[in-house]
Specification:
Helix content is about 40%, strand content about 20%. The chain is of the alpha/beta class. A 4-stranded parallel beta sheet has the order 2-1-3-6, with helices on both faces. A two-stranded antiparallel sheet has the order 4-5. About 30% of the residues are buried.
Length: about 180
């Protein structure tokens, strides 16, 4: 791999560790190992390193905790944790880019669609007293996008999906990004 550049992706915590996902007290974490395995196998096959970001939900509330919407997490304390994680993530992306003579290519940041924190384009919200999936980023991804703009980073952010039929489409998009 001497003539190839090194590459990494940053991933939301639960892509590597499902036990941090919200669960009902007394119940287990929801495991979506099929899509996760496919993502990890692709990254390993293409020799792309993985950097795991912290989980703001687990950091502040631990487990077990009940699933919440974006509004359910939107507190000053939660936004502060998101701000800290976003700042560390941007610092690490910049550090990777400065590593070695040509730097390390940060290929993407991977979020998880349907997460109130890590959704990129689909986030659970309460609108008109009903729970819906809104077409917007979760709290961490929103904060990360703002911080990346502030420091001038243009790393793509992609949402991986565990919904039937969407996972394969997102995996193809990730593959196209990794294998030009």
């Amino acid at each position: 791999m001497e003539d190839e550049s090194e590459r990494v992706v940053f991933v939301c915590h639960c892509i590597l560790n499902q036990s941090t996902r919200a669960r009902w007290p007394g119940g287990g974490a929801r495991r979506d190992t099929g899509v996760l395995r496919d993502v990890l196998e692709l990254l390993m096959a293409e020799e792309v390193g993985v950097v795991q970001m912290d989980c703001p939900e687990f950091s502040l509330f631990g487990n077990p905790r009940r699933p919440r919407t974006k509004e359910g997490y939107d507190t000053p304390e939660f936004r502060e944790i998101c701000s800290q994680i976003a700042g560390r993530t941007c610092d690490r992306i910049i550090a990777f880019q400065k590593t070695g003579p040509t730097g390390v290519e940060v290929v993407a940041v991977l979020g998880v669609e349907g997460s109130p924190s890590c959704g990129v384009g689909r986030t659970p919200r309460i609108i008109d007293d009903e729970g819906v999936d809104a077409s917007e980023p979760g709290l961490l991804m929103e904060t990360l996008m703002d911080e990346m703009r502030r420091v001038g980073l243009e790393t793509p952010i992609m949402g991986m999906s565990f919904r039937e039929g969407e996972g394969e489409e997102r995996l193809r998009a990730l593959k196209a990004l990794i294998i030009p």
